[in-house]
Each structure stands twice: as structure tokens, then as C-alpha cells.
Specification:
490 residues, alpha/beta, Rossmann fold, ten-stranded mixed β-sheet, six-stranded parallel β-sheet, 19 helices
Amino acid sequence: MSRIVVVSNRVALPQRSGGAAGGLAVAVNAALKDRGGIWFGWSGRIAPDPSDAPQVTKHAGITYAVVDLTNEDYQEYYNGFANRVLWPVLHYRVDLSEFYRSDLSGYIRVNRQFADHLEKIIRPDDILWIHDYHMMPLAKYLRERGHRNRIGFFLHIPMPPADLIQALPQHGDTVGALASYDLVGFQTEGDRENFARYLETRGGQTTPDGTGCDIGGRRVKLGTFPVGIETRPFARRARHAARTNFIKSFHDSLSGRKLIIGVDRLDYSKGIPNRLDAYEHFLRTAPEWHDRVTYVQITPKSRIDVPEYQEMDRYVSHKAGQINGAYSDVSWTPLRYVNRTYSRSALAGFYRRANVALVTPLRDGMNLVAKEFVAAQDPADPGVLLLSQFAGAASEMRTGALIVNPHDTEGLAANLRRALEMPLAERRDRHARMMRVLEARDIDRWAEEFLAALAPEEETRREVALPRAAVRSVVRLPVGWGSGLVPRGV
């Protein structure tokens, strides 16, 4: 069996990841935990000189290979091009991008350095799985060095329409370089279709079955693979967390009030200002809910050295104070705005206690908070999920969530009230429908389907040759899903 080599911008080393591992770390661990393999990427350290070779450690069957970046690399590749150009453009915010040729040069330089380091550790039959927007051209540079490995790429954030991609200077060197992969995976069918249309503008021809594109003398498969969560383990974590003294103390602090919760990084893609406007409108138009509800917004700060994020931090802090100043009294604070990071166990406990979750990004690749909130709920008395139509999770969770437009302040406020007043029978029915989706398409299924689609053709043929009963035991897809490349009907 071929060895798996996973590549991502950051590597969550086991001694550092602790209980607050992010979504990508959980996803990569799901891919490697039973298969073993290598996880390669940046160590998170800034060093005076570039690494000569990867620093290698092993833990629980996984080999971790990391390299350091210089401050120049970090500023140009990561802070510059990745986070101030690619991130806003791919989230449909071309107006917020700040392009400098030096940053693009740094992005290309670091990706070439990663290709140089990978050459030292990969074998000809390894399968490479590259993650996210930091590494778009990596396969191109490996191909230039003669490597013919199967190489797949998965984008964890949105892929905008072709017109927006083409607003990116020299987009052919970054987004266009994805054509060097054997398989490119996306969170939603809309993202996949946007990229397919972009390749067509570059001379690509969609394959007759619609699952790929012929471009530049090679074929790239395109697939939709919605990221899941560790559904049952997370549900257990939430049940256990609810019994801890920390969560009990938090519960007592609410004094019997209903809890609305939001958990987001401080980022303009998350729609936090829009959400606060809607909550303010709710308080203004539903005075009977005063002193009966508390909204807790947990928002760790990110990229605080970027001016756009500094301005957003000032605005959100001011808005939170404005809401509390207008509506609180000596015994009730309607909004708790918290800028700190909590462990996954603590978050699971918060979710389980919450009556409503506000997950209302302006644009999001998937948003696993939505799925974790549902998994954490008590099925006998579950809370309600308010979910943006622009989150990738909406395509799977619309059977049970209240789907909202985050730009519609009055509509979001009305749906918040509906969620707080929703009858128990409807809440149970909606929660059960969403849980069926989460259990059918958990994080392990996501990794299995992507790697099956990426596997060499001879390995795929061996899978097809399995007895029918064995195939059912491996696949177990819900009704309406196809091969894992282009899911339909969800």
C-alpha cells in the first residue's frame, strides 16, 4: 500500500496541539491515524536562516517533518500574499486585498523551498495530499522536478467565481497552478463548479462525465468532499464536559436564562458585526426577552498585526459596549464578548448548554462550529442552529438548521426569536435530521473518500473487485451521494 504524505502550512506537533486543535489538524489526523505516514509543513518557528533539512519526529505511527521560516519568508509568504491577497480574494473580498509583487515572490519562493524539502523525504510511490491556499503551486514545482506521484489538493476555504479569481494579479501562477494536481477537492459543489469554469477560461475542456478537466496535456479530477467532524467522539466530549465544574459554574452564571452562543475567529468573513446588529434589533423589538436571554460571543483575535483586523477589533468591541450600555441593567448583561481561546472540551460544554447557535459567516468554506454545535446537543432537548446560507455547511445542514441571510438584519433577528420560541417537538425533529447527516459523513468518511478518489488506478480497480457486501461495508453512503467526486441531491 502506498504511503501517505500530508502537507499543510502548519503542522500540529503532538506535544503542542493539546486540546485546542483546529479543524485542519483534526482532519489531517483522521487521514493518518490508522494509515500512518508523514505530515510535512512549517514548524511555526521564525529562524534567522532557512532550514537545511526537515526536522523529523515520530509519534503514534505518524512521522512529523517540519521546517522553519525566516522572518522575510513569514512576512511575504504568510502575512503578505496568503493572508492579505489570497484569503480576501477567495472569500469574495477583492476590495480588501493588498497586492505587492514582493509578497507574491515570497509565496512562490517558500513553495519552491517546500518542494526542495519534500524531495528529500518522498518516495516514487508515495501519495501526496496538499492542504489549503498556502500551497496552491506546490504540485507544479514537484512536477518540474520530475516527480510523477499521485498528488491531491484540498481547499478548506471557498473558491469564488472565475471573474473574481481573474482579479488576482498573476492568478495563473497560483490558482491556475492547481491544474498540476491529479485531484482537486472542494467543500461544496458551487466551489467545484466555480473552479471548473475558471479552468475553461484558461483553455480547459470539461470531461464528458463532468468529473474533471483536460488542460495543458493532462487531466485533473475535480471533486466535492464536505469536511465532517468526529461526530460521536465530540458528542461524548460534550456530555462529559457538561459535568465539569467549569461548565457547571458557567451554567450557574446564566441564572436560568437561555443561552445564545457564537464562536468565531475575529475575521471579516465571519459576519460578526452583522450578527451584533441583528441581536441589537432583536433586543429593540422584543423587550419581553430582556433579562431572559444571554448572548455569549467567543472571538479569539487573529492576525492582529493586519490593519483590517485591528479596525474590525475596534468596531466590534465598540458595538458590544454600545449594546450593553443601552440594554443591560445591574443584574443582567445581554452580551458577553470574550477575546480568548478555549479548549475543545470547554467549547463542547458551551455548545451543549446553548439553546441557539449563531453561525452566520458572510462566506465560509465549511464552518465546523455548526456541526460541532449539533453533535454536542442533548437529543432530548436540543438547541437550534441559525446557519448562514453562505457557509459551506448549509448544503448539508439545511434539513434541520434555520438558514439565514447574514446581510438581512431584520430577517436574522426574526429567526433568532423563532429559534428561542421553537417547540420541543420541532427542535427534536430538526436535530435528528442533522445528526443523521453528521453520522453518515463524519471526518473519517471524508478522508476515506478523498484518498480513494486520489488512489492510483490499479488500487481503485482492486477496490472495485471487492465482493458487493464488502463494498457496502466500506462505503455506506447516504442516499443521494455518488462516488465521492460529485455528490448530488444534498
